[in-house]
Structures are given as structure tokens and as C-alpha cells.
Write a structure and sequence with these properties.
The chain has 11 helices and 14 strands. The chain is of the alpha+beta class. α6 crosses α10, α7 packs parallel to α8 and α8 runs antiparallel to α10. The radius of gyration is 34 Å and the shape is elongated.
Length: about 375
Amino acid sequence: MPGEDNFESILLDALENISESFVIYDRNGFLVTCNDNFRKLYNYSEKEATPGIHYQELGRLDIVRGNIVVRDEDGTSEDYFACKGQYRQKLEGTFVVQLKDQRWIKITDRRLSDGGFVSIQSDVTEEKHNARLLNEAKQAAELANRAKSEFIANMSHELRTPMNAIIGFSSLLASEVYGDHSDPRYQEYAADIEGAGDHLLTLINEILDLAKVEAGAVTLIEKKIDIWQLSQSCKTLVSARAKEKNIKVDIVINPPALALYADPIRIKQILVNLASNAVKFSDPGNRIVIDWQQNNGRVSLMVKDFGMGIEQEFLPHLYEPFRRSKIAKDRQCEGTGLGLTLVKKFSDAHEAKMRIESQPGDGTTVTLNFPKHRTLEIQEELAS
């Protein structure tokens, strides 16, 4: 057990070797002890910062040497004096100030049992400088991201107009509205152009929607939605692809008179994207299920397929734009990788909790749980 003198020597040696400045004042404001880092921080000599000197005397030296507080972390120098007074009353938390020489000093004071207080102070100028640079980089990145989103939105809008013309005229050619083609291959080629145009327009619309979401330009226009009518409409949109693969689309709604207060356009996009994915990643002759349920006053939507599934290592990246799973790439499934990104964005906008469960070869189940305030019921005869 070290003696009292030896213990004091060890303690003083420890204080001299800590990285922060350290000083103790008694209950009357006189300096009890300090380490060399405290003197260096404010450019005091050993004679100036010596036990017995009052902190007001050190304050006068600060004025002479320019160690003057110009502002605290949150306000001006005028705010500083009021905040400093409140801080010295409580001595809780920390206090960060900027000196006239541009240095930032972090101060942590704590009351001692005899009425004095201990103060630990450090120069955090470099940390503040790095934080400022990081914030500036963050703002620059956000500005660049907004510019990118605006550019994509403008370009996508400009691309949609000619695409609509291509799709419209190729449809006329494929339908032979103005007479039979001299060669039947022309009708086939026109149909191919129309199909490719529809696919390209879908991609353009997805990119445009993502750009709008990232730019914060999507506003929900909410009203009562008849879930049965919405589901039938979505089924019609995916029926052609489902028929090609001989995939049955089952719709379950319980109770039948179930309605949702939401944006019908965005909910339709959610359902069409999920149903299209389910058809896309299902094997021929299989089936998918669109299941609406009301449990404990909440509406839930489940879209389930029994297809190829998703590899486990890809699950954390499901909502990242333009990312596609290895299974999708290996099977050469078309798409941009934006479908689930948009579904997640539009689900979040409706405060719905989204969950995806999948195993390779065992299919995928996507579940959306909407908050209670979005649950409505319609008359039974309308639901029929």
C-alpha cells in the first residue's frame, strides 16, 4: 500500500500525462493544482498558473493574450456569457467555445465535495474543422444528388413523349388499321416494336418515379380504395405475361367489403410491381397469390409466389436501386432492379411495414402491414 506522499506523487504524475488540460479550483475560485497541458492551452507560465492564483487573474491574462471567447457552439458571444453563467450553476454536460484566435475549446466542469470544481479542457479545433468539412461534403453530395434526380426526371419526361408515339404508331401498324400488309412479317415486326416500346416506357416510368421520390416531389393523393376493384385491375395488367407462362393468379380478400384509405395510383404501382415480380420469377404452370386480410383492425397485403426465390446473401440489398440478384441475372430475367425500391418507397410513404421472406427454390412472400387509420369498409353490394 503506497504512502500518502507517494500516492500524491503518482496522482500528479498521472495528471501530467493525460492528453487533456486539467485544473482544480477551490470553493473561492483559487487554483489548487493544474497540469502542464492547461498552461500550454492558454500560454500560461508556471509562475502565472500557480496554486493560489484566482481564476479572475487568469482571465485578465487571457484578455491580454487574446484568449477571448467570441462565441459558444450554438450562439454569439452575448449568448455565451448567459450560457456560461447557467452552466457554472449546474456544472453538467460540456461547454464548447471558440476563442479569438479561432481555436475551439471543449470544457467539462464538475463540482467537488468541498464546493470547488475540477475542469477538464481540450483543444477540439481539428475535430470541429473535420466536422465542418464533412458537413460541407454532405451538403455538396446532397446538392449533386438533387441535380442528378432533377436531370433524370427531366430526361425521362422528354423520353416518354417520343416513346408514346412509337408505341402508338407501331400498334396501328400491327393492327393493320389502314389495310393488310404486303408481307405478314411486317405485322410481326410492328408487334415486336410495340412490345419493346412498352417495355422501354415501363423502365422510363420507373426511373422517373425514383427520381421524383428522391427529389421529394411525390405527394400522396389519398381517398377510399375498393380493394377488390384495384386487385382485379392489377390482375388484368399482369394477365398477359401470366397467360404466356400458364400461371394462375389467385385473389383472396377477407372480409370482401374491405377498403383502404390511400393513394390509389401508388398502391396500384405497389401491387403491379409485386405481382409482376411474382409472375416473372415463377416457373411455368405455377401460381401466385394476392391475399388481402384484415387482422386486429389493420389491412395487410401478401403477394406470394412459389418460384425461384432469392439467395440469402442478396436479401440485405433488396431495396437498393439498380441491384439485381444473382438468380435473376443467371436466368436472364429482364428488369432494372427498381421495382422493389419503388415498392419500399411508396410503402414507407403510406407508413406500411414491409417484410420479405424468401428461400432459393421455395418462392418469395412479400407482406405489407398498413396502419389502423387506413382501414375502411365499403358496402357489401359494392364489394361484389
